Batch of 2 targets.
Target 1
Amino acid sequence: MRALLRVPRRSLVDVASCLLPVWLALIVTHTAADADLWGHIRFGADSIAGRTLAAFDHYSFTADTPWINHEWLSEVLLAGVYGAGGAVGLNLLKLGVLGAIVFMTWRAGRLAGGSRFSLVALSSLVVFASYSRTQVLRPQLFSVLFFAVLLTLLAIRERRGWNDRKTKAASVAIPVLFCIWANAHGGWLVGMATLAVWVGWDFVERRTLRSFAEGTALTAASLAATLVNPYGLGQWTFLHQTVGLSRDVSDWVPFLELQPGMIAFELILPLVALAALLVTRQWPRPRDVVVIAVLAFGTFRVSRIDAFLQIATGLLLAPAIVDGLGRLERRLRASPRLNTPSFAHGVAIVAIVTATAAVALPRLNRIYIEGPWTPDPEAVRFLQAQAPNSRLLTWFDWGEYAIWHLSPAGIRVSMDGRRETVYSDRVLDGHWAFYKNDPDAGTYPDAIGADRIWLPRRLPVVSVLRERGWQVAFESDVSIVLSRDSGQPYLPAPAEFQPYFPGP
């Protein structure tokens, strides 16, 4: 018992080395709901219940294209985990993905001879740098994980001989990975481009027939594996039509159009890596430079690719980064003041870890509904009670929240976050013109046959609609519901809103 309760003596360097992962734990245990989370779990639950994928959507009255749900596997996983463990299960799933990324980063650094200090720092930096895409529960979370797995498998193939058992296993695992990836998220396109660059440059360096045959076979098998999906070539066609370097989506904007704070955040790991390269003069292989350069170009054009760039930077440049961090550690430990063990420092570490656990663990049973997109729960209560079996023209950020809460009342929405997967360009363009209050926006609800309209109060089109005879059925500080029916505005009874998924 005394051994269990005894606090070890530690130095200030040890205290400092625990602060980064502790701070990271405080960040990653706070999970915010993405606007599409309600839809992902609802659609996944439908697939589980029906044991099939819906060919056409029945939640939206404007959906007019066959539904190619290229993220169905992620949705089934999210729905299954939520059904089994609720918010705790979803949070543990997210932490499991982050833990796997830490494991692969740690492994890359350890193979490069990194110390524990440098491995902790490198792993924390990689998770922190890629967290802009892994902080919410959405299919892209799995793409980031699969990309790290791809780089790890490619490294295993390179490190071992051609006839080594692990090399052969990795060569088989890569096409299997792409098969799973293609059914989980469209980010497999980034992985395929990286694989092509990797094997292509390997042939340039080796210039052997065997390297060409091995690389070609691996790429062809991986590409063919992506066709093992419910839509076959239809998924390729869909991705070709919808994925590009420019889309009208907030996280697809070019890198330089991000907020200054976000740009600074994205540059932390690349700058650390650059400093390590300059200090250690451990120059990476040309192939690794090309892979990182391609991802950097992609990120410059489409900021959403940034997490893949961060993962590649951490894994491919791990030797230089851990060497540079190791040199920093040795300089710190050379100072008697910083490296003298003390009982007080050990107590400080125990206190910091205990306090972090006290804050972080209660968060595991909550997924927070927060941010500027947050919908109005009182409006949802009104619509559930007063507008059953209606056609609701919705603000697109609220569409999947509305599907979750209002579809049991027979209410169908006009727009939600699935965009190109169930809506044609005609429907999308009509909604964007309506939201922006373009000319003739006031006629759009009648054109699509909407019974009710639920929008943020701030939109200029609201006043245009009221001038055209739409009546206020509900109004709050956040949103407004308009109807053709006359009557007294609905005054909801006061109710406390718990801002946690799935909400009221």
Target 2
Amino acid sequence: MELTAGENDSGRRLDRILRKALPDHPLALIHRLLRRGQVLVNGKPAKAQDRIERGAVILIPVLKESKKSAVDFHGERKNSNTKVPRSPSRILPSAAAPIWQDAGLIAFNKPAGLAVHGRDSLDTIVRAFLSDKLPPSLSFTPGPLHRLDKPSSGIVVFSASLEGARLFTSLMKDHKIKKTYLAIAEGIVSKEDIWEDKLIRDREKKKTFTSCDPCAKTAITKISPLASNSGCSLIQAEIVTGRTHQIRAQAKAHGHPLLGDIKYSEQRVNSSERESKRNNYIAGFYLHAWKLEFSGYKIEAPPPEAFKKKVIEIFGDKHLPRISTD
């Protein structure tokens, strides 16, 4: 079996490339072949830790074909990681159009109600979109580089190259990515504030709580009010940390749960509103990943129509030019 390393395989360890290129073959088998010197790179026995360069030819002894193997009998990798959603253009056509692309990264404006991962998700839509646009690779698969709740809308950045993935991951680790959200919260937020809390995740309930537990992690969010009316506030929230459900849990803890967020509020949304679908928006809470800034780049995503409609309904239309970027 002969494999050729592509641009996005360059610099990666051989064992990691083989794990990705042969996903349905036991890892123990791959390492056994490597230990025995039976894997050749450019005609020479190679070790697991060897770094592979673009264009390198990897020769592997014929392996027993598994039922779900990603490698055909010619040794060419099938694009099995790209799963096209059922009728993606009919599900959410706007999700398939990128809003920004550069530096080996590509950003999409995720509609509310669309999961980032899983079946018929933004991930499958993006993979389908990129399937014929990226150079062949044995080990690289584009994927989302950060989280966004299914009911939330807004910016999600995907890797379009290994270099881009490494850049974004490094910036995330060093807290050099600025993320700004728009939200509609209950109550009147009258001044700028910094919410700093200790949060802990209950995995069984899939909910985040403030806690004094030693295992709780610090969460910091900078809050700026944009408008207030009818017992609600339109706020801008810049997250300094990135905890699961951070804004939702902190908003609840500070007496301003997000409008419609029944998981973190006692408020109930009537069934007709919950079941309604307008412009591919599933009624729920109002949280939108609005802006993302890093390394001199600034990405902005306009809120969905249902979000804008709610803003007009509560606060009037004078705030739309401020929050709409399209």
